[in-house]
Design goal:
about 0% strand; flat; transmembrane helix; about 70% helix; membrane; mainly alpha
């Protein structure tokens, strides 16, 4: 809000910022723990920017879907991803 970028542009900015620790880890040898935490911290404003963009009215710079629909869609996505990982067990390493 302070920089007057708007919700969508802020989301794009945070995508770029979240890529920087990954690139620094890959190209410059940034410590993996530092890279993880920097990227992890940026996930909150990234998600908030896109959720706000989707939910706010077009007059406020959003897509106009409404916060209820955005919350419902994200809840369904989270449930689907958790169910997928639970069923496929893709998160379990084989020894």
């Amino acid at each position: 809000m302070t920089a007057h970028l708007g919700y969508f542009a802020s989301g794009v900015l945070f995508i770029v910022l979240i890529a920087l620790p990954a690139l620094a880890y890959w190209l410059l040898g940034l410590n993996e723990i530092v890279a993880f935490w920097l990227a992890y911290i940026l996930t909150r404003p990234l998600g908030a920017s896109f959720a706000d963009w989707a939910g706010k009215e077009p007059s406020a710079g959003g897509a106009g879907l409404g916060t209820g629909w955005v919350s419902l869609a994200l809840t369904i996505l989270i449930i689907a991803f958790v169910a997928y990982v639970t069923i496929t067990r893709k998160d379990v390493k084989n020894n």
